[in-house]
């Protein structure tokens, strides 16, 4: 683990793509600003762990209970009419670029 000290206004660059800026430090609370391309998902650790749990449940759960859990976590907002009637089919792309189901 890399440990850095930064003051308010200072930044950390990750791979030249992500920038983390210390916005303020007040009463032991650090406010960070994160700049990253749209394709990079950024989550608080506790939320990311919940997403991992939901993903694990998805491998063994029926669709409706999973959607209910996602809605409860505010991670899925499609109206009920848009839910697929059958399980979703996962498409994997191999290194040769051809999609297989």
Could you describe the 3D structure shown?
- This protein is of the alpha+beta class.
- It has two domains: 1-42, no CATH class; 43-78, no CATH class.
- The chain is built from two helices and five strands.
- It has a three-stranded antiparallel beta sheet with strand order 1-2-3, with no helix packed on it.
- Strand 2 (18-26) and strand 3 form a beta hairpin.
- 0% of the residues are buried.
Give the topology, please.
Blueprint: E1 11-14, E2 18-26, E3 29-35, H1 45-58, H2 63-72, E4 92-93, E5 99-100
Antiparallel strand pairs: 1-2, 2-3, 4-5
Helix pairs in contact: 1-2
Give the helix tally: 2
**Number of separate strands:** 5
Q: Give the spatial strand order of the biggest sheet.
A: 1-2-3
What structural class should be given to the helix and strand makeup? alpha+beta
| Low-confidence region ranges | 88-94
Mean pLDDT: 78
Helix content: 10-25%
Order of helices and strands: EEEHHEE
Main sheet, how many strands, which sense, barrel?
3 strands, antiparallel
Count of distinct structural domains: 2
Global morphology:
elongated
Strand content: 15-25%
Distance N to C terminus: 39 Å
The gyration radius over C-alpha positions equals: 19 Å
């Amino acid at each position: 683990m890399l440990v850095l000290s930064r003051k308010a206004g200072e930044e950390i660059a990750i791979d030249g793509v992500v920038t983390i800026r210390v916005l303020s430090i007040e009463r032991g609370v650090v406010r960070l600003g994160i700049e990253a391309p749209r394709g990079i998902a950024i989550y608080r650790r506790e939320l990311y762990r919940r997403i991992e749990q939901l993903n694990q449940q998805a491998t063994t759960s029926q669709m409706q209970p999973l959607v209910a859990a996602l809605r409860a976590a505010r991670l899925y907002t499609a109206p009920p009419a848009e839910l697929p009637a059958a399980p979703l089919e996962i498409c994997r792309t191999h290194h040769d670029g051809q999609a297989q189901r």
